Amino acid sequence: MGSKYVSNSVIKRLPRYYRFLGYLKDAGMVRISSRELADRMGLSASQIRQDLNNFGGFGQQGYGYNIESLYKEIGKILGVDSGFKTILIGAGNLGHTIALQIDYQKRGFDLIGIFDKKESLSGQMINGMPIRSSRDIEDFCKDNGVKVAILCVPYEAAEELVPTLVSSGVIGFWNFSHYNIKEEYPQVAVENVHLNDSLMTLCYQVLHDTNL
Amino acid sequence: MGSKYVSNSVIKRLPRYYRFLGYLKDAGMVRISSRELADRMGLSASQIRQDLNNFGGFGQQGYGYNIESLYKEIGKILGVDSGFKTILIGAGNLGHTIALQIDYQKRGFDLIGIFDKKESLSGQMINGMPIRSSRDIEDFCKDNGVKVAILCVPYEAAEELVPTLVSSGVIGFWNFSHYNIKEEYPQVAVENVHLNDSLMTLCYQVLHDTNL
DNA sequence: TAGATTGTTAATCGATTAACAATC
DNA sequence: TAGATTGTTAATCGATTAACAATC
């Protein structure tokens, strides 16, 4: 998929465009101008046009953008129908929630396995799926063509798991651990979720920004 | 706290500095140069010096930085000892996990109340705290000087809750909903966690970046 | 003192905004 | 056709990197 390079700032805005266009579509709106979308999203019209034109000319002069077709186009760009075979590792509190909470199908993934190293959890069901033993991860990935792993495990476990996963064909990670996957494996796709960092950023803001 | 303006890019790196310095401190290291820290963190030495000098000259020419004291300084900047009175709203799957998973004390917060609109949950305990009825939020905030709210509720609930919270003295939100708080209340501090957006970004990366 | 490394200024790079000709 | 709005180029702004004098 050797498309042209698109900056990270743009890519991070795509899901938000997709979400907003979904709302507008569901509200029955048919067309929108970059100006109106900008106002609704709190962006500039210029930025929206620049962003979209990274991927093609989806609008029409004098008219604006057709909401339904733009929605579909962005869906295609994001790959919402990809159905990448995905496993989740670490069925503790967080892992359990992440397994239940997310609508994987609608976001391009197909969650087909949940693993935990604790043998005592094996067989317990989450969302109709049994928790499997971590010992079986490698075989499972190879047998099922797993492309993405969700890591809901501590640093050390992540560090230990990643080499095996990569060599078993995993090319993308949704990483809730603090282990820095990109450092060791720059070729794989990684999206980090650092809840603690996010919360500390809030603390800074409350402490400094607000004019109490 | 009218300190000088520090850009968001810098602030978002602070928790990571704090974390790394914590590791180094625990490993018994005493000093580190910007160069070595940069190598370990995958940043540039220049950036680290620029970042830190937003807050003061913590280093010493010819020597580098003292790890323990830099760790403490960054902790102070982030406000890890602030203990902001905090409540969590929405004790469903996600809310429950967020209540349990995070070490609030170490990150500047003091979680003192959990609320859910479902009366049937009232009284149930999470981490030694009873789930309270959402009807009591306003009084609770005013009585206890609540400064921060964690929103683990859907869009509509957030939209409805935020005005009351703000008027009751809440000045910071850790927002897991898609409701855009900043739009309506630009004066409050908001840190959004959009798990779905993060996952879709990963999908894009797996689809495009990787050279399969 | 000589060597190392900071703090800070200047240069570069990238992202956002402004402007406008093209065109529906 | 006239008005609206895009796609795209140029200008601006901000963040990162490079360079180096200050100094421990």
List keywords for this structure.
alpha/beta; Arc Repressor Mutant, subunit A; seven-stranded mixed β-sheet; 45% helix; DNA-binding; 9 helices; homodimer; 212 residues; Rossmann fold
In short:
Chain A is α/β, with parallel strands linked by helices. The first copy, chain A, contains nine helices and nine strands.
Mind sketching the topology for me?
The structure is a homodimer of 212-residue chains.
Chain A: H1 8-26, E1 31-32, H2 34-41, H3 45-52, E2 65-66, H4 67-78, E3 84-89, H5 93-101, E4 109-116, E5 125-126, E6 129-133, H6 137-144, E7 148-151, H7 155-167, E8 172-175, H8 181-184, E9 189-192, H9 195-208
Parallel strand pairs in A: 3-4, 3-7, 4-6, 7-8, 8-9
Antiparallel strand pairs in A: 1-2, 5-6
Chain A binds a DNA duplex (24 and 24 nucleotides) through residues 7, 9-10, 33-35, 44-47, 49-50, 52-53, 57, 59-65.
Describe this structure in words.
- The structure is a homodimer of 212-residue chains.
- Chain A is α/β, with parallel strands linked by helices and 212 residues long.
- Chain A folds into two domains: 69 residues, Orthogonal Bundle (Arc Repressor Mutant, subunit A), CATH 1.10.10.10; 114 residues, Rossmann fold (3-Layer(aba) Sandwich).
- Helix content of chain A is 45%, strand content 17%.
- Chain A contains nine helices and nine strands.
- Chain A has a seven-stranded mixed beta sheet. Chain A has a two-stranded antiparallel sheet with strand order 1-2.
- In chain A, α1 crosses α4 and α2 packs across α3.
- Chain A is elongated, with a radius of gyration of 20 Å.
- The N and C termini of chain A lie far apart (51 Å).
- The mean pLDDT of chain A is 96.
- Chain A binds a DNA duplex (24 and 24 nucleotides) through α3.
